[in-house]
Amino acid sequence: MMRVERMTVVANRSIARNIFELTVTGELARRVQAPGQFVHIRPEAAGTLLRRPISICRVDGDQKRLTVVFRAEGSGTKALAACRVGDALDVFGPLGNGFPTDRLASGAHALIVGGGIGVPPLYELSKRLAARGVAVMHVLGFRSACDVFYEDAFSALGPTWIATEDGSRGFKGRVTDVIAGEGLRYDAMFACGPRPMLQALAAMRGDKPLFLSLEERMGCALGACFACVVRVKDDETGTAYRKICADGPIFEAGEVVF
């Protein structure tokens, strides 16, 4: 159940170019139910009116710790990047529906695909699938070597391929190039990243299940403002709309109309 809480910063560090890993502690961490859920954080910055939606990267309910990874690019996220240990942050959550980890049984194979800042929510997903006995493998795409993060963390869970646009790390090209080039086989795919990447993955999945986490700017994060909607298929009208914050952010491919 969601709540608003003043959570305390216990760690904050830079892990790649303009990418920060922020860990906070509080009772809210115990309420996270599924990987892929997110929190709405109010940065302590003058003139910042809206909260920032940030996906949950890691959670430890027993220790009451929650970690988010984000790119510092605007006034709000730059304020988060400047937080120090002991600072308090106004956090609302957990929000969203999360990935359906129960769709795969022990022994099944999951392909987890992330692009850029879409990578963080996939780490907790991979951990939970691996704990269920699912064999996980990862393909992570970044612009350049200086943008790569969490490679070792994912590699500890299963085989991991890195793709960079400029070829400075791993494969040169897109995540889809790695999947096709390596001939990766899987029972279900899970992905988060830019819309063009998700669209390309949906086109190549064949008959395999694909679960997508959609990224979007949000206002209220409760579904009241209709600021973050996505078109979905509807049997009666042909198309309909769903709110990414309240109905998502996880949708199954074939449901979303890109």
Explain this structure.
This protein is α/β, with parallel strands linked by helices and 258 residues long. The protein has 2 domains: 3-95, Elongation Factor Tu (Ef-tu), domain 3; 101-215, Nucleotide-binding domain of ferredoxin-NADP reductase (FNR) module (Rossmann fold), CATH 3.40.50.80. It contains 6 helices and 15 strands. It has helices at 75-81, 120-131, 151-155, 175-182, 195-204, 244-247; strands at 3-16, 19-25, 38-42, 52-60, 65-71, 88-95, 109-115, 135-142, 160-164, 171-172, 188-192, 210-213, 229-234, 238-243, 250-252. The strands form 3 sheets. It has a 7-stranded mixed β-sheet, sandwiched between helices. The chain is globular, with a radius of gyration of 18 Å. The mean pLDDT is 90.
List the topology elements.
Elements: E1 3-16, E2 19-25, E3 38-42, E4 52-60, E5 65-71, H1 75-81, E6 88-95, E7 109-115, H2 120-131, E8 135-142, H3 151-155, E9 160-164, E10 171-172, H4 175-182, E11 188-192, H5 195-204, E12 210-213, E13 229-234, E14 238-243, H6 244-247, E15 250-252
Parallel strand pairs: 7-8, 7-11, 8-9, 9-10, 11-12
Antiparallel strand pairs: 1-2, 1-6, 2-5, 3-4, 3-6, 4-5, 12-15, 13-14
Name some characteristics of this structure:
18% helix, seven-stranded mixed β-sheet, six-stranded antiparallel β-barrel, 2 domains, 258 residues, Rossmann fold, alpha/beta, globular, 15 strands, Elongation Factor Tu (Ef-tu), domain 3
